Amino acid sequence: MNAPANPPPTVTDDEIAATSPSAMIRATAGIQIGSGVLTALTAAQVLTSVRYDGPMQFVPMAMVAFGLFGIPVGANVFRMRLWAAQAGCVISGVVALLQAALFVVNLGNGMLSCLGLVSPPFALLSFVFSFFAIGPCARATAIKARMQAAGLDLGN
Predict the structure, then answer these.
(1) Rounded to an integer, what distance in angstroms lies between the CA atom of residue 33 and that of residue 147?
(2) Which of 10, 57, 77, 82 has its CA 20 to 30 A from that of 1?
(3) More confident residue, 56 or 95
């Protein structure tokens, strides 16, 4: 009997365990989702209470879009998707900068809000956690690809 030319790749139990979200990945997903919600709420508060002219008028609308996009990204970080961890890192970094700039502009115009105080540090925390989630998500994505090549589909 002839042996197959390319035997199917093997997957160890440790590799299967590495595809399930650790506590850090679960925390990252929760922080990313929370940051998205806070960003959207902060932007909604600014949109309903302040009117900007010029290019600054687009910042709150961009924050709403980034905040709402951060929610499904956080859900996909929980599913150990590499692209989601990378997108979460980018989104959180942009949101942290936008919120910090908006906070400074609002403070200069006499508007101080609790959401405006809490949101930038939360977005920065989301950036840090997303950055550290890239490695485990990359490993899980590679393991899932090998498992699929071996005929073991995890269904996600």
Answers:
(1) 29
(2) 10
(3) 95
